[in-house]
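Before we proceed, please read the two lines closing this message. Tell me what the C-alpha coordinate row says about the fold.
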Amino acid sequence: MSTSLLYHTWGIRGCTYVHARYERGNTIFRVRQNNSSLRSSCCGSREVIKRGVIERTFRAVPVGSRSIFIQIAVHRVECLKCGCVRQVKIPFASPRRSYTKSFERYALELSRHMTIQDVARHLGVSWDTVKDIQARYLRWRFDKPKLSKLKRIAIDEIYLGSRSGYLTIVMDLDSGAVVEVAEGKHAQALTSFWKRLRCSRAKV
Protein backbone atom coordinates (compact mmCIF):
# COMPACT_ATOMS: atom_id res chain seq x y z
CA MET A 1 0.00 0.00 0.00
CA SER A 2 1.21 3.51 -0.78
CA THR A 3 0.11 7.10 -0.26
CA SER A 4 -0.30 7.40 -4.05
CA LEU A 5 -2.72 4.46 -4.16
CA LEU A 6 -4.82 5.97 -1.36
CA TYR A 7 -5.05 9.21 -3.32
CA HIS A 8 -5.91 7.71 -6.70
CA THR A 9 -8.31 5.05 -5.36
CA TRP A 10 -10.06 6.78 -2.44
CA GLY A 11 -9.24 10.46 -2.94
CA ILE A 12 -7.22 10.68 0.28
CA ARG A 13 -5.05 13.77 -0.18
CA GLY A 14 -2.95 15.86 2.16
CA CYS A 15 -2.08 12.73 4.15
CA THR A 16 0.57 10.02 4.33
CA TYR A 17 -0.15 6.29 4.60
CA VAL A 18 0.96 4.74 7.91
CA HIS A 19 -0.37 1.16 8.05
CA ALA A 20 -3.43 -1.04 7.48
CA ARG A 21 -5.26 -3.58 9.61
CA TYR A 22 -8.14 -5.96 9.04
CA GLU A 23 -11.02 -6.43 11.47
CA ARG A 24 -14.25 -8.41 11.00
CA GLY A 25 -14.14 -8.19 7.23
CA ASN A 26 -13.27 -4.47 7.24
CA THR A 27 -10.07 -2.82 6.04
CA ILE A 28 -8.87 0.12 8.13
CA PHE A 29 -6.17 2.42 6.77
CA ARG A 30 -4.25 4.58 9.20
CA VAL A 31 -3.07 7.89 7.73
CA ARG A 32 -1.25 10.94 9.07
CA GLN A 33 -2.11 14.47 7.98
CA ASN A 34 0.85 16.28 6.44
CA ASN A 35 2.12 19.32 8.34
CA SER A 36 1.91 21.33 5.11
CA SER A 37 -1.90 21.00 5.18
CA LEU A 38 -2.28 22.15 8.79
CA ARG A 39 -4.04 25.49 8.59
CA SER A 40 -6.48 27.51 10.64
CA SER A 41 -10.02 26.51 9.70
CA CYS A 42 -11.06 30.11 10.46
CA CYS A 43 -8.73 32.21 8.29
CA GLY A 44 -6.58 29.66 6.44
CA SER A 45 -3.30 30.84 7.97
CA ARG A 46 -0.42 28.37 8.31
CA GLU A 47 0.87 30.17 11.40
CA VAL A 48 -0.59 27.72 13.92
CA ILE A 49 0.37 25.94 17.14
CA LYS A 50 -0.79 22.37 17.79
CA ARG A 51 -3.16 22.07 20.76
CA GLY A 52 -3.90 18.35 20.83
CA VAL A 53 -5.55 15.75 18.61
CA ILE A 54 -8.78 13.79 18.39
CA GLU A 55 -9.11 10.37 16.76
CA ARG A 56 -11.62 10.16 13.93
CA THR A 57 -12.74 7.39 11.58
CA PHE A 58 -14.23 8.00 8.13
CA ARG A 59 -16.07 5.56 5.91
CA ALA A 60 -14.59 5.35 2.39
CA VAL A 61 -15.76 3.77 -0.87
CA PRO A 62 -15.99 -0.03 -0.35
CA VAL A 63 -14.13 -2.64 -2.36
CA GLY A 64 -16.68 -5.27 -3.31
CA SER A 65 -18.38 -6.35 -0.08
CA ARG A 66 -15.47 -5.18 2.08
CA SER A 67 -15.99 -1.91 3.95
CA ILE A 68 -13.09 0.55 3.95
CA PHE A 69 -12.35 2.99 6.77
CA ILE A 70 -9.81 5.79 7.12
CA GLN A 71 -8.47 6.57 10.59
CA ILE A 72 -6.66 9.80 11.35
CA ALA A 73 -5.62 11.90 14.34
CA VAL A 74 -7.18 15.30 13.64
CA HIS A 75 -5.15 18.19 15.02
CA ARG A 76 -6.64 21.00 17.07
CA VAL A 77 -4.62 24.16 16.47
CA GLU A 78 -4.41 27.74 17.68
CA CYS A 79 -3.98 30.35 14.98
CA LEU A 80 -1.33 32.97 15.76
CA LYS A 81 -2.93 35.34 13.27
CA CYS A 82 -6.62 35.37 14.28
CA GLY A 83 -6.48 33.60 17.66
CA CYS A 84 -9.03 30.95 16.65
CA VAL A 85 -8.67 27.52 18.30
CA ARG A 86 -10.33 24.75 16.28
CA GLN A 87 -9.78 21.44 14.57
CA VAL A 88 -8.08 21.70 11.20
CA LYS A 89 -10.06 20.85 8.08
CA ILE A 90 -9.72 17.33 6.73
CA PRO A 91 -8.73 17.49 3.03
CA PHE A 92 -10.76 14.43 2.05
CA ALA A 93 -13.96 14.92 4.10
CA SER A 94 -16.56 17.63 4.61
CA PRO A 95 -16.96 19.22 8.08
CA ARG A 96 -19.06 17.28 10.60
CA ARG A 97 -19.34 14.22 8.34
CA SER A 98 -18.14 10.67 9.06
CA TYR A 99 -17.55 9.68 5.43
CA THR A 100 -15.15 10.82 2.71
CA LYS A 101 -16.05 13.08 -0.20
CA SER A 102 -15.48 10.21 -2.65
CA PHE A 103 -17.90 8.05 -0.61
CA GLU A 104 -20.46 10.85 -0.86
CA ARG A 105 -20.06 11.05 -4.66
CA TYR A 106 -20.31 7.25 -4.93
CA ALA A 107 -23.56 7.20 -2.92
CA LEU A 108 -25.04 9.92 -5.14
CA GLU A 109 -24.13 8.01 -8.29
CA LEU A 110 -25.70 4.81 -6.95
CA SER A 111 -28.84 6.77 -6.02
CA ARG A 112 -29.44 7.44 -9.71
CA HIS A 113 -29.98 3.71 -10.32
CA MET A 114 -31.01 2.21 -6.96
CA THR A 115 -33.50 2.85 -4.18
CA ILE A 116 -32.34 4.58 -1.00
CA GLN A 117 -32.72 1.34 0.95
CA ASP A 118 -30.64 -0.61 -1.60
CA VAL A 119 -27.89 2.03 -1.55
CA ALA A 120 -27.84 2.02 2.25
CA ARG A 121 -27.66 -1.79 2.36
CA HIS A 122 -24.86 -1.95 -0.21
CA LEU A 123 -22.78 0.71 1.54
CA GLY A 124 -23.44 -0.57 5.05
CA VAL A 125 -24.92 2.71 6.29
CA SER A 126 -28.32 3.83 7.53
CA TRP A 127 -31.19 5.08 5.39
CA ASP A 128 -30.81 8.46 7.11
CA THR A 129 -27.17 8.73 6.01
CA VAL A 130 -28.07 8.29 2.34
CA LYS A 131 -30.91 10.83 2.65
CA ASP A 132 -28.54 13.27 4.35
CA ILE A 133 -26.10 12.95 1.44
CA GLN A 134 -28.91 13.58 -1.04
CA ALA A 135 -30.18 16.58 0.94
CA ARG A 136 -26.70 18.14 1.05
CA TYR A 137 -26.39 17.70 -2.71
CA LEU A 138 -29.77 19.35 -3.30
CA ARG A 139 -28.80 22.33 -1.14
CA TRP A 140 -25.53 22.69 -3.06
CA ARG A 141 -27.05 22.13 -6.49
CA PHE A 142 -29.96 24.53 -6.10
CA ASP A 143 -28.51 27.08 -3.71
CA LYS A 144 -29.89 30.55 -4.39
CA PRO A 145 -30.96 30.34 -8.07
CA LYS A 146 -32.30 33.46 -9.79
CA LEU A 147 -35.87 34.18 -8.75
CA SER A 148 -36.75 37.19 -10.91
CA LYS A 149 -38.54 35.11 -13.57
CA LEU A 150 -40.71 33.12 -11.17
CA LYS A 151 -44.45 33.27 -11.85
CA ARG A 152 -45.95 30.16 -10.24
CA ILE A 153 -44.52 28.08 -7.42
CA ALA A 154 -45.38 24.92 -5.47
CA ILE A 155 -44.27 24.19 -1.90
CA ASP A 156 -43.84 20.73 -0.40
CA GLU A 157 -42.43 19.24 2.81
CA ILE A 158 -40.39 16.03 2.89
CA TYR A 159 -39.59 14.02 6.02
CA LEU A 160 -36.05 12.56 5.87
CA GLY A 161 -36.09 10.60 9.11
CA SER A 162 -35.24 11.30 12.74
CA ARG A 163 -31.65 12.32 11.98
CA SER A 164 -32.26 14.88 9.23
CA GLY A 165 -35.82 16.00 10.05
CA TYR A 166 -37.84 17.91 7.47
CA LEU A 167 -36.95 19.71 4.25
CA THR A 168 -39.20 22.32 2.67
CA ILE A 169 -38.91 22.44 -1.12
CA VAL A 170 -40.08 25.23 -3.44
CA MET A 171 -40.51 24.42 -7.13
CA ASP A 172 -41.00 26.59 -10.21
CA LEU A 173 -44.20 25.18 -11.74
CA ASP A 174 -43.36 26.49 -15.21
CA SER A 175 -39.84 25.08 -15.56
CA GLY A 176 -40.02 22.26 -13.02
CA ALA A 177 -36.80 23.50 -11.38
CA VAL A 178 -36.28 23.35 -7.63
CA VAL A 179 -35.56 26.93 -6.52
CA GLU A 180 -35.26 26.46 -2.76
CA VAL A 181 -34.41 23.62 -0.39
CA ALA A 182 -34.68 24.70 3.25
CA GLU A 183 -34.24 22.78 6.48
CA GLY A 184 -37.31 22.54 8.70
CA LYS A 185 -41.00 22.95 7.98
CA HIS A 186 -43.84 25.48 8.26
CA ALA A 187 -43.57 29.16 7.34
CA GLN A 188 -40.40 29.92 9.31
CA ALA A 189 -38.37 27.52 7.15
CA LEU A 190 -38.85 29.83 4.15
CA THR A 191 -38.19 33.18 5.85
CA SER A 192 -34.99 33.83 3.88
CA PHE A 193 -36.63 32.64 0.65
CA TRP A 194 -39.51 35.12 0.95
CA LYS A 195 -37.01 37.90 1.60
CA ARG A 196 -35.02 37.00 -1.52
CA LEU A 197 -38.22 36.72 -3.53
CA ARG A 198 -39.28 40.25 -2.55
CA CYS A 199 -35.85 41.61 -3.44
CA SER A 200 -36.00 39.90 -6.86
CA ARG A 201 -39.28 41.71 -7.65
CA ALA A 202 -40.71 38.54 -9.14
CA LYS A 203 -44.43 38.63 -9.91
CA VAL A 204 -45.62 35.38 -8.35
Summary: The two ends are 58 Å apart (CA to CA).
